[in-house]
Known about the structure:
Shape: elongated
Oligomer: single chain
Number of helices: 2
Largest sheet: none
Number of strands: 0
Structural class: mainly alpha
Radius of gyration: 19 Å
Amino acid sequence: MSLGGINVWRARCVDFVRDGCDHLRSTQGKIGAFGAPMAEAGEVPGLEQVAEMERLQAYLMNNYCIDFVLLVVAVVAMAVARYL
């Protein structure tokens, strides 16, 4: 593979990471915007609010787990590639 091809793949990887971070940041913002009124209300939130908050948190946790697995795969691949 030519050096130019590697640079194209590197640029695409950076774009994917940036898009993923933006997506997770927007989900975290939704959780913050949704949770602030619930905390300020001072009363028990409704079932719909609790369900929505749990859905957002579960979605975020699933993405964090996927990110962790991909990180471990990348670290192992780099360690193996070092000795090839």
